[in-house]
Model the fold of this input.
Amino acid sequence: MALALLAAVFAGTGKLAAQEIMAGLSHHAIGITADFAGTEILVFGAIESEGDIVVVVRGPRQEVVVRKKAPVFGIWVNAQSAVFQSVPGFYGLASTRPLGEIVDADMRRVMEIGIDGLRLEPADMEPSVREEFRAALIELKQAEGLYPMEPSTVSLAGGRLFRATIVLPAGVPVGTYAADTFLIRNGNVVAAQSSPLIISKAGFGAEIYNFAHRESEFYGIAAVIAAVIAGLAGNLLFRRT
Amino acid sequence: MFQIYLPIAEMSVDIFLLLGMGGAVGFLSGLFGVGGGFLMTPLLIFIGVPPPVAVGSEVNQVVAASVSGFMAHWRRRQVDFKMGGVLIAGGVLGSIFGVWLFGILRQIGQIDLVISISYVVMLGSIGTLMMVESLRAILRRRGGTNVRRKAHVHHWGHGLPFKMRFRTSRLYISAVLPIMLGFVIGILAAIMGVGGGFFLVPAMIYLLGMPVGVVIGTSLFQITFVTATATFLHATSTQTVDVMLAGILTLGAVFGAQFGTRVGAELRGEELRGLLALVVLGVCVTLLWRLVAEPASLYALSPTGFH
Done:
């Protein structure tokens, strides 16, 4: 049932769903330049009827390895590790009321609403250790500010117009993000809309990064030539006579 | 405060901090006549640069530092190009092996550990040796005794095959020795981001028996080519070379080194070496402490999507 609902909601074909909620973003593209120190995006829109609103901004999915250190001969060494497939690089959430009052745990898991609803399961691991590494992963992401602990609030004006601000920290990963807005009534998602958001490196830093990754042979040669020129210039500049 | 974004390290750092570090290490290298890579890589790790990027970028910076020194010695004709060529052949093989090993260690999540342990071992032994040497020299000067060293010692290496004549060094020795020596230096460059002069220079004098006059120039000749190879290999296979970082450090180092050379000319050698030994041992202990102290978080993340 939940899957059918999901399909109807995300396909965007259901006329009802499309009209129940309309949302927009303040930016659809963010460039990370050399002096990028984080930014905010504003998610705003309108709902047709009463209900609670949850806004989720989710970063690109990555494969992540969590490593645990253990002492070996008095030295702390990476020992056990867990590989997580498709971990959102960022997960920010805003809601009209505390999440627990809006949807129950099952629904949160089905829709991946809220950090506890995220499906983060490492492959080939015992359940007891799995839970430990899952908690560690979330804690590390929170420490980097990528899974903000305190959800923001969605403010509703006149019961119809809503707006929410999601803070993106300086260390946000690049890639394609999705800003999803959910209209929830009686614990059920009755409408949803998804807007894409692209975060990419911009400016001189981006050019260097792309050069290094796409044409690494030329980048390597350029790095050597630059160093040789710098060395020669330094030698000529201070040549002692 | 003027933050600059390092595109490969993927972090923002105060540009004046980097210039200052480049200047300070450059000053020390000018003062003591050492490369400085072995101090810069740990410092970069201390300010939070990921150890693999610290190594890849520092090996790039060493190219600049050694090319500059090599030019000065070349002008004075203090370079044995034939010996340098043989050392480079070994060094290129060593850096290929080193970068390959680096990639594997990174994949299994142990590269940070191996870099730190290599540094602790290397800095610990060099620091201790230098400290002992300079204390002895100071005592000897006070005592007034003078011990003469044998110029040329015969050892196992002279029985090896593939003998070659090196005219500039006035040597007729097996090519196996310099190739092996070069190989080790290549591994050091790839895994630790150093030129390896601290190891190469004494080995050239005592192991190969080269005349002191051509040792520095020849070692710089080898280091230039080997670090250039390691830079290229890291850029293509591990993508850890941050040219922005290397460039800023070089800028600071060029000026620091000039200042250091001038100050060094007015100070006594033994006290200087003792001072450098203290700096080296200090960095060593700090690295060791980071290995043995219980980490604030037992867990760490590493993305695998890119390498």
